Amino acid sequence: MQNSKKPIEFANKSEKIASSSKAPFKIMVADDEEEIHSITSFVLNGFTYMGRELQFLNAYSGEDAKKLIVEHPDTALILLDVIMEDDDSGLQVAKYIRDEIKNKFVRIVLRTGQAGYFPEKEIIAKFDINDYKEKTELTATKLFTLTYSSIRSYVALVNESTAKEQLADINKNLAQMVSDKTAELKEQHNIMMQQSRRAAMAEMLGMIAHQWRQPLSTISAIAGNVSIALALDEFDQDSVADSMTKISDHAKKLSLTIDSFRSYFKPGAQKETVSVSTVISDTLSLLQHVTDKDKIDIIYDPENTISLKIYRNELLQVFLNIVKNAQEELGRLHIEKPKIIISESKEKNRHKIIICDNAGGVDDENLFKIFEPYFSTKSKNGSGLGLYMCKTIVEDYLNGKIVGYNRDGGACFEILLPLK
Questions:
Q1: Residue 306: is its pLDDT beyond 90?
Q2: Last residue within a domain, chosen from 95, 117, 138
């Protein structure tokens, strides 16, 4: 090997310190001449790339080279002599590496002292090698440059392969990841639905108690009057018949109340064609005792109503949550002339329902958060799930849209449902 006129570059002290904590790049020198091993390690002494030094593997025959590459598959570069124990030892090693053990990463540079014996064009075309050099042309500087470029190419190939493997793993697991995440979100959603349903059930039981109290008291009073008449022997057939009719009427009212609540709690597994005004009327009926108690004026004209094929109970729950919230806010603030206004209209291919109150509206800083889960303006008395479930039901179950805003001194909720 000829000496170079350009000085050899060595790593400085700081580079050596930095590289001490990183595994070195492995370079194999496969040559049957001891001198080639010594010169190569001398020239490349102090070489670093990406803060990593070199580790030399020495093979003195083709068979040695095959054993070493199997033991060290992470070898970055092989400086491979063509002629060793046989005239084509180096070529057989190259073929073994690429074809038999399928190592596509290690950079193979053939070195020969008899260039004419194996023409470069034929070798490059026939074997998967990366460079072909005469030993006489590999000066110190050129060997340094060759090593640098070969290791850089090796690193790029390894990084590309790693990225492809990671991408393949991601693609392979993506469907499962999506499925798992969807199941997790669905479970969380179901938990919140159950919480909302339990809260609604507690309120409904309270409503049943209130709605039943008056007719039960009336029935009790009528029964008492009949008992007294019998005790005083003042039995009057017409009077008793009238009393029995009244008892029967109140019993029917109780039965209708039970039917309304049972319908609400029955799971709505199937869509049904129902008039929106019917659902609104059921809502107002269920909440009548609280709206009457707070003397709330309900303004609703069903003239523009329409029939839709929907999940009836889900829409009923939406109306109940919104009207109940309005009623509670009106009662809490003791509004002088409380009212709830409900209107229906058609907007392009959607049916629009607007429910407004005159309770002063929602604070501006809270308006954009009202549909968030567990957000409530009712202090510790609110679960924060009512309006969140309204949004979930309208958007996920009814394929509609719901928005909230302030208008004319009150809060409004606008529900848009598709006509088809």
A1: yes
A2: 138
Range of the domain at 340: 268-420
Taking Cα atoms as reference points, which of 314, 305, 282, 322 lies closest to residue 413?
Answer: 322
In this structure, are residues 326 and 411 in contact, taking their beta carbons and an 8 Å threshold?
Answer: yes
Residue 143's nearest CA partner among 42, 40, 50 is 40
Residue 8 DSSP symbol: P
Pairing of strands 307-310, 272-275: antiparallel
Q: Which residues contact 420 (CB under 8 A, 6 or more apart)?
A: 349
Per-residue tokens: 387: 């309006």
pLDDT of residue 205: 66
Helices (H), 116-232: 120-126, 140-231
Cβ atoms 53, 47 nearer than 8 A: yes
Identify the sign of the CA torsion 76, 80, 86, 92: positive
How far is it, in rounded angstroms, from Cα 177 to Cα 173? 6
Residue type, 335: I
Q: Give the CB-side neighbour count of residue 111, counting CA atoms within 13 A.
A: 24
- Kindly report, residue by residue over 339-377, the tens digit of the pLDDT: 999 999 998 899 999 999 999 999 888 888 888 876 666
Choose among 129, 141, 38, 41: nearest CA to 82: 129
- Tokens representing 287 are 């909440």
DSSP structure string for 276-314: HHHHHHHHHHHTHHHHHHTT-EEEE-GGG--EEEE-HHH
pTM score of the predicted model: 0.47
Least confident piece of the model among 172-186, 203-217, 266-280, 360-374:
203-217
* Final residue before a domain boundary, out of 118, 138, 158: 138
Higher pLDDT, 2 or 165: 165
Q: Taking all residues of the chain, what is their mean pLDDT, rounded to a whole number?
A: 82
| Other Cβ atoms closer than 10 A to 338 | 22
Higher pLDDT, 335 or 256: 335
Which H helix or E strand runs over 417? Answer: strand 410-418
CATH number, domain containing residue 404: 3.30.565.10
Count Cβ atoms below 10 Å from residue 263 Cβ, excluding itself.
13
60 and 84 Cβ atoms separated by less than 8 Å: yes
% of the chain residues with pLDDT over 90: 42
| Domain containing residue 93: CATH number | 3.40.50.2300
HSE-CB at 255 with a 13 A cutoff on CA atoms is 6
